Amino acid sequence: MKEIFHRTSIRKYEKRQVEKENIELLLRAAMAAPSAGNQQPWEFYVVTDGDKLTALSECSPYAGMLKDAPLGIVVCCQKGCRLPNYAQIDCSAAVENLLLEADSLGLGAVWLGIAPLEDRMEAVGKVLGIGEDLYVFSMIACGYPAEEKEQQDRYDKTRVHYVD
To answer: Which of the 8 DSSP states describes residue 59?
Structure first.
């Protein structure tokens, strides 16, 4: 799968909207992720409103690119899921699937961690009016890339241990 070795964190975007069909493909890819006990604890807030994106960009010191992105996706976890200790792992798998699908569609994206930092979780929740039954896990800025980056080769054979 070439996307695994091509995907990079893209933080600059063209002033061009992401088509609804592509947004749905991103969300379908995210929801195709594996989850513990098939609990699927994720919920997604799709944000295209410029004022909301600007407000979200101020919820974390690392989220500035959201104000110039045509699309933001906020990933939340259900608080009452059956296996809460695995919910963030499940949501991580969903985010990775979404990032790989973005690359396959010619989009650029970057994963912005929010949880477990309570102040950032609360700030994002306030901007979007997220209810008490969810907590904010992460945000993703997405759009057509206005920058090109080559992926680093991160393979490190010293971190591989064979057990025969």
So the answer is: S
* 130 C-beta neighbours (distance < 10 Å), count: 18
All structural domains of the chain: 2-147 (3.40.109.10)
Mean pLDDT over 64-77 rounds to: 98
Q: What is the pLDDT of residue 1?
A: 74
What is the identity of the amino acid at 65? Answer: M
- Neighbour-count burial of 102, counting CB atoms closer than 10 A to its CB (0-12 exposed, 13-18 middle, 19+ buried): buried
The CA distance from 150 to 25, in Å, is: 24
The values of phi and psi at residue 110, to 5°, are -140, 140
Give the distance from CA 124 to its chain's centroid. 14
- Asked if 26 contacts 101 with a C-beta cutoff of 8 angstroms, the reply is yes
Place of tokens 């690119």: 65
Query: Which DSSP symbol is given to 146?
Result: S
